[in-house]
């Protein structure tokens, strides 16, 4: 697989905020290895053109490098960092935000028998595969449009659909297809994930969230664990601690207040769980973060 043109396009058009002129398309250029940092994955396809990255999700670890892509079918709390990057050979990546509505439209257009049936259980919310040549070729053609603004409005949506189709029909297609099916196990878990994210400061009963997701408690717990590598309560804890770290970056002198804002009634429990997650107590980590800018943007690219 020849990635030279892809590397050249990413190098030429990379911006600090990873955005491009094409809606939903991200590119990144990182010139030094980074320490592991927490973030939300987003629902995204990420293709590495150069370098390597390691992602931890619960007790699972994913590594992907040049010529490989990672799919996150649900917005998940992760810890990630580039393991291969340098000024002479920066890490280069491409990302495409996954839109369930577009995936659903493609599934409706597929002829019977074009795709294998989707299994009943929820797949893992994250997976890594080798990128086929035709997949990489479509990504290159999409990024070429950054040099041809006149063609972008008409051709970019068509090429994005091609990339999604190749993703749907590829090795990780089962998870991506479930993302586009309103009644799939993955969609039910994604609904629960969104609810927990929106209400992360509140205590909840797993039975109530299972009912919201339209599943029995046993099926919900089993599928939630399969997708996120965490229990629902562990997931909520990850969200709380990540939100606390974002708040501490801008309110470093209000550790107790930050703990209360993210749902901790006990300052000692907040400090204990924060230290376990980030390797330092909140006050010490806040001092280190002072002046830093932490972003909740997708962190896989």
TrEMBL record:
Gene3D superfamilies documented for this protein: Homeodomain-like
SMART domains documented for this protein: HTH_ARAC
Pfam families attached to this UniProt entry: AraC_N, HTH_18
UniProt protein name: AraC family transcriptional regulator N-terminal domain-containing protein
Entry keyword set: DNA-binding, Transcription, Transcription regulation
Positions of the UniProt region annotated as Disordered: 279-301
UniProt xrefs under InterPro entries: Homeodomain-like_sf (IPR009057), HTH_AraC (IPR018060), HTH_AraC-typ_CS (IPR018062), Tscrpt_reg_HTH_AraC_N (IPR009594)
Domain named HTH araC/xylS-type: residues: 190-288
Organism: Streptomyces polygonati
